[in-house]
Amino acid sequence: MARHISFGTPVNDAERWAFSLLSDELPKDYMLLTNVEIPTHTGQAMEVDALVVGEWGVYVVDVKGYIGRLNAGLHAWSLDGRDVDNSLSKANYVARVLAGRLKHKIPVGVYAPWCQGMVFVTGRKGEEILVEKDQGNLSIYTPAKIIQALTKEWGLTAPRKHQVTEQQKEMVLDTIGQVAIVEQRNQKIQDFIKLKCLFLQQGLEVWQSEYNPGGWTAPWLLKILVQSQFESALDAEQHEIRLREEFKRMQSLSGCSGVPFCAPLIQDGEQLVLPIRMPRGIPLNIFEVEQQSTYQLLEILRRSISGMQQIHRRGYTIGGWASNCVFLSDQGDVEFIDIKDNLTIAEDIAEYAKAFLTLAEQTQQPRIYHWYRDAAKGTTVDLDAIRCDLSALIELGVCDTVPQRIEIERGAVIDHHFKLESFISSTDHSQLWQARHIQGNYPCAISVYNDVDEQWHKLNNIYRSLSKIYHPHIEKVLSFGQLPESNDLFIARAWAQGVALDEVKGVEIGQPITWFIQILTALQYLHNIDIFHGAICPKNIICNHDTATLVNFGIGSDIAQIHYAAKYADPTLWDVEGEAEKDLYGLVASFIDSLVPKKLHQDDGAAGIVEALEQFDREWFGEALYDACLKILKFEFRIEPNRDYAEQLGLEDEEVVQAGM
């Protein structure tokens, strides 16, 4: 693209199209001066359409929009049989005048550059033109040859060919006069000074600029619409409508986070300009995500969500999700410069998630990046949930970056808060530790699980639910997250005093029924709010004198695989059974299996549990409770909605009260 300096306004469409072609196609070290006046020795001036200062010479170009068959001779021209002016003669005359002026200005020992006339016949924007030259070396060219003629050595008519030096180029500009002033004027729109072109396509330009009213400056972007450079008036009109609509949208969104301020439209007859305050930061496509801390990334995500929500609440969507249209800064600033309002809210959220997924994954926080993965697929549109999660992680300080992988061993510190003290048990896929909260100096339990992607969705849903509820016989979840530099998850929970149900020694009269009722009422509460344990077994029921606590929701099956209640059931029945019925089965089977001596039921399967139940005295057990437990173990029990489990199992109100419930 040549350095184009416009001294005046094009007089017709042929000139506009020709100047645009020359500006776009000529090399960047060429200068194109359009509608410029060449001074003569008498003080008068002759206007030429274009003056090209190139590699091999200085060309005075006369632009003609002739359409048809042009026959050009040395002296006379005709267009479709009628006489027309010999434009080359005029161009050559002006070239000789310019050459004479240059010779008077050059210092001793410096040669003047070669100056020659040239005619550019455009036709109808490059079409519907045929040029026939009586002599092949006449400098008359159509769009197919004009660029080569101006840039190649063969285009010169000089007897000796020499390249134009930088000093000679400066002499040409000095002879024309005030070129720098004109160029500066062309770069200025009111108080905005154009600095760098960022985008150029047909008649649409985007410039980096500065606002300089005097005394201070501020960076701005200018979206410029040059109507004359579009191929048709209809295209120009449509683009003008879009630019005006964009201005209205930005005015309507004024004050929203993420929307840069815009000034009123500027229209001067030739162009329509929308000034937009330069967004803070740099475009997303060159933003160095890897160089940011976890907290910086979380803050960027939080502000991007907040900004998008504010835009949606005013009835607009962003739509312009190209990576060069989203600006980010190290301080967490997020701004959108291409608000199109061309998508539904659901589509807008999906496009947003795709654009910011890399940032989300860089946080290494499963609660965050799994939401972005789901949103990118269109399976969630809950912006409030992710914004709350982002705020919680930032405010609670649970996501500090740890540069190296944590080895799970005694003394290791998990999540900066929990120090592992004693190992309890493990399987191939998990470990259970007793730990201590460093700041609070109280005991807690830490479970570590492998394969974050496989278990995340289930664990995340359970954690989010349990963290918001309280029940005296349900474990209290303290924290949850991903270990650094690994795919391992951890969950921290309050330490439940006592031992597993199958490890209780010296059971006292009344304790089993108390524990049973406590866990039963806990399940009633959980099931009412659609939380299911899914892994009830003796190891997941912690008993301490007169209190039982249900632990290891959804993730305890591998820790106590050999005790898992599902092994007692018919696999076919277990697969089709409801989640609530499975929990009740696990509860009944765990108590029966743990409290009846193994020697009294030899079979380890479902029949063995039923056999163990039969060791109880029906009257001591209670007829109703006995029958209900038997139906549960045979998967014949059906839960009645809106009715207490205790009542359905035939437990008396007095028993429930005695259990502390």
TrEMBL record:
Keyword Transferase: yes
InterPro entries, alphabetized: Kinase-like_dom_sf (IPR011009), NERD (IPR011528), Prot_kinase_dom (IPR000719)
One Pfam family hit: NERD
UniProt keywords, alphabetically: Kinase, Serine/threonine-protein kinase, Transferase
Domain NERD: from-to ranges: 10-121
Keyword ATP-binding: no
Example GO molecular function: ATP binding
Superkingdom to which the source organism belongs: Bacteria
Positions of the Protein kinase domain: 418-661
Identification of the protein by name: Serine/threonine protein kinase
Top-level taxonomy: Bacteria, Pseudomonadati, Pseudomonadota, Gammaproteobacteria, Alteromonadales
